Amino acid sequence: QLKPKAVIVIFGATGDLAKRKLYPSLYRMFRSGKIEDFAVIGAARRPWTNESYRENVEQSVKNIDMRDKDLQAFSSRFFYQPVDVTNSASYQDLNSLIQELEEDFHTEGNRVFYLAMAPEFFGIIAKNLKLHGLKDSAGWKRLVIEKPFGHDLPSAKQLNEEIRSAFDEDQIYRIDHYLGKEMVQNIEVIRFANGLFEHLWNNRFISNIQITSSESLGVEERARYYDHSGATRDMAQNHMMQMVALLAMEPPINLTTEEVRSEKIKVLRAMRSVNPEDVDAYFVRGQYGPGQIAGSEVTGYREETEELQDSDTETYVAGKIMIDNYRWAGVPFYIRTGKRLAVKSTKIVVEFQNIPMNLYYENKDDQHPNLLVINIQPEEGVTLYLNAKKDKVGHAEPIKLSYRNNLTDHGINTPEAYEKLLYDCLLGDATNFTHWDEVALSWSFIDSILAGWRMKRPAFPNYASGTMGPDAANKLLSKNGHHWWPVE
Ligand code: BG6
User: Fold this and answer.
1) What residues form the annotated binding site?
2) ipTM of the complex
3) What does the record give as the active site (predicted)?
4) Which of 38, 221, 371, 452 has the most CB atoms at less than 10 Å from its CB?
5) 410 catalytic residue (yes or no)
6) Index of the ligand 1 atom closest to the CA of residue 234
7) What is this structure's pTM?
8) CA 278 from centroid of its chain's CA atoms
9) Which regions of 234-344 does DSSP assign to beta strands (E)?
């Protein structure tokens, strides 16, 4: 097993992401022996000390099966450095601390700078790291960036230019945590390791592909960020587009980062851009009103906080994406995602074309196409829907072949995805991070949808909490003779 060495500097160390995802991920890696020679510097504004920081780190991993001995050995590698990211002195202090820890922990000058904080500071931090010599060590340097990567194409470009003035593209790791999910990583294996699927994986045999990522939670404490973003920027521009790319890409000539990325980029280039005037033919937006989730009453989005009372932000988006290339011409890729929907579930349904004639069902109009369902979460696995004989000859019924990944360690929102991605970053494997070209292409696709929507005010709210979204999303499919397959 490779055991990468590094000092990891986490900007935003007192924040939610660090607590919920990063510390547990680091702890698991430490426990499983993936990392030994490492130290973590928590950098943030608050005047914490090493002691209070370590207590917080310990708290954040306390739900993981722990041994006290391990926990102390773990948290003793954490150091706190108060920083003002706009102030030169902060970077000088940080550099001295890094150098000291490099000696003590034998990390060979390898440095990860993890930006787990508000995006308006990404550019400033990247520039200052370079300016104050924090990139001048003997080992490798990597910059990890959380979303959102811009608000639209122009702002993403500007952010990218700022970062690129300090770091090279191959030093930049843009996180999309969906790419760390086990079953998202499995998409390409299921496709390219099985003739059964890959030979049929095209417009001659596939009718349509549906990607649903539904959530039952509302905006929770993130109203400020979310209201500025909306479901399309929050989920579609990144996670959903990445899944489309993995489902639609050509087989890469090998599994290197460059080859996989270049195939994904080709898909994003082939996506038919939607003319803003035609947005309604391709995309549907929604916002939740009051309703019931698991038997309890919940409020609508506009009632969540005072500042949301006139909000036109979409908490739901569904869309039809056409990929105009040889393999996919004519096959819709439907995506949908939203808050306060009936279930928490992420699934991909690949609907194969029906056979020309229905010999075995009494109602000859019954449609039971074969479906391949890739279950991303909460359960992980694959289900194949087939038809087989029922009771007497001449009758058929749908049957299911299911494979379920072992669930012991998995679950919604576990740090699993982050653990994989952090380890990849330490190893220098950027395959499951997004390249700038992917970010740019998906923004340019999304920007025209948003431009179309800006042309008129939506009639919100248009779906009740606890449902599967607005009716218009059903019409989007039914006008092509399709319907959403249930994801519960
Ligand atoms: C994040 C979004 O990127 O993904 C959140 O900002 C969303 O709004 C989350 O809830 C969903 O992630 P997961 O792993 O729970 O599907």
Assistant:
1) 12-19, 45, 84-85, 147, 177, 181, 215, 234, 339, 344
2) 0.99
3) 239
4) 38
5) no
6) 6
7) 0.95
8) 28
9) 283-286, 288-293, 296-298, 316-322, 332-338
